[in-house]
């Protein structure tokens, strides 16, 4: 399969802005009931939380996907057909997600971007598999690959990769072995808890405390007081952005001085603003996308994203951009195939993306590495080699 570089996909700012008024994308929460055919637009659904505590994830995902679609449509779409991108709000609820999976299956969508929530992704997977609709998720829980759906793909690594990288840095490189856990009981939290726990166990390290909270919890004083009594060197946080920020804010207020560490949510502006810049300073983050200034491709993406939305790009938008670009590449290379043929074309696609070189394995994972960043001066920067 021909390798497609990002440089050819990143259209000029002028073209993006001109297209914004005419692109066939619905407003958040909207949909279309037109029947799919081989002459009209190709319909792709974005399913993510557009409301509630996880809505920032949904907003980033939609913008990244829309940017990719706008750029392809500006160049003629896929084999002369425009791409229609419709976004649906799953509210972060697996039941809502399952109902939306049935909806998009009945309305002629050929592929789905989303969701960023692992539990919703897992709930939707059986319906999408039965309907033969390929989906590429930003979720990272190993429970997604455990579904073993040939139509499910990931646009980033699983928690296993994130947390092995984190353990190498904290334990192998820095020699930190007194580590406390706080994670939530959702799919993401459980995935992080188990993956980091295994990475530590492989190194003969056991957590000095292991606290589990609920996904909607707001007061963490009891769990953090228990952790404070253990005086750990590291506080590992296995929760999403907002909850992670609240945990770290309260941890600092209780006098916990441990180095905070976690995966991708800890590198976002939502985490930073919720925790407070001073409280988040020094947070160690495992992520496949540390900076908009990493290379020419990320700089071009960030420039186009800024021009389109007047805000800075970040990891989740980059993931959705990569995932959507892979879908569109597979559609082009398969002459607009759907179902199993489209899934096979996605798996065969080798893609030089913002997150790295995608090469999908049989579990649907295409990216197999992350890097370490540290929040320094309010920004996530690559950790020094020393």
UniProtKB/TrEMBL annotation:
GO biological process: amino acid transport
UniProt keyword list: Amino-acid transport, Signal, Transport
Domain Leucine-binding protein as annotated: residue spans: 41-378
Residue stretches spanning the membrane: none
Source organism (scientific name): Amycolatopsis bartoniae
Cleaved signal peptide residues: 1-23
Protein name: ABC transporter substrate-binding protein
UniProt similarity note: Belongs to the leucine-binding protein family.
């Amino acid at each position: 399969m021909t390798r497609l570089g990002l440089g050819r996909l990143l259209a000029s700012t002028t073209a993006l802005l001109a297209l914004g008024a005419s692109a066939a994308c619905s407003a958040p929460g909207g949909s279309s009931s037109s029947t799919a055919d081989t002459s009209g637009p190709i319909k792709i659904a974005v399913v993510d939380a557009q409301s509630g505590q996880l809505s920032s994830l949904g907003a980033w995902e939609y913008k990244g996907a829309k940017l990719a679609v706008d750029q392809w449509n500006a160049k003629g779409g896929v084999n002369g057909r425009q791409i229609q991108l419709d976004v649906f709000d799953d509210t972060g609820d697996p039941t809502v997600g399952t109902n939306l999976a049935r909806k998009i299956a009945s309305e002629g969508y050929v592929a789905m971007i989303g969701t960023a929530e692992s539990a919703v992704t897992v709930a939707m997977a059986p319906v999408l598999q039965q309907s033969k609709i390929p989906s590429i998720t930003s979720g990272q829980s190993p429970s997604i690959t455990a579904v073993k759906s040939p139509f499910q793909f990931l646009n980033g690594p699983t928690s296993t990769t994130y947390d092995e990288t984190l353990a190498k840095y904290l334990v192998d490189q820095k020699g930190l072995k007194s580590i406390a856990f706080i994670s939530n009981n959702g799919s993401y939290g459980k995935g992080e808890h188990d993956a980091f726990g295994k990475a530590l166990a492989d190194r003969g390290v056991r957590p000095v405390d292991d606290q589990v909270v609920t996904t909607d919890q707001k007061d963490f004083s009891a769990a953090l007081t228990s952790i404070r009594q253990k005086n750990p060197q590291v506080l590992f946080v296995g929760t999403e952005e907002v909850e992670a920020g609240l945990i770290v804010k309260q941890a600092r207020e209780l006098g916990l001085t441990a180095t905070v560490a976690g995966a991708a949510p800890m590198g976002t502006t939502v985490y930073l603003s919720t925790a407070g810049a001073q409280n988040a300073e020094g947070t160690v983050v495992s992520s496949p996308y540390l900076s908009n200034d990493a290379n020419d491709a990320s700089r071009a993406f960030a420039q186009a994203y800024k021009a389109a939305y007047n805000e800075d790009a970040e990891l989740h938008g980059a993931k959705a951009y990569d995932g959507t670009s892979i879908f569109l590449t597979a559609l082009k290379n398969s002459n607009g195939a759907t179902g199993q043929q489209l899934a096979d074309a996605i798996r065969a696609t080798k893609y030089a993306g913002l997150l790295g070189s995608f090469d999908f394995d049989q579990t649907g994972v295409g990216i197999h590495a992350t890097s370490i960043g540290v929040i320094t001066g309010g920004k996530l920067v690559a950790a020094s080699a020393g």
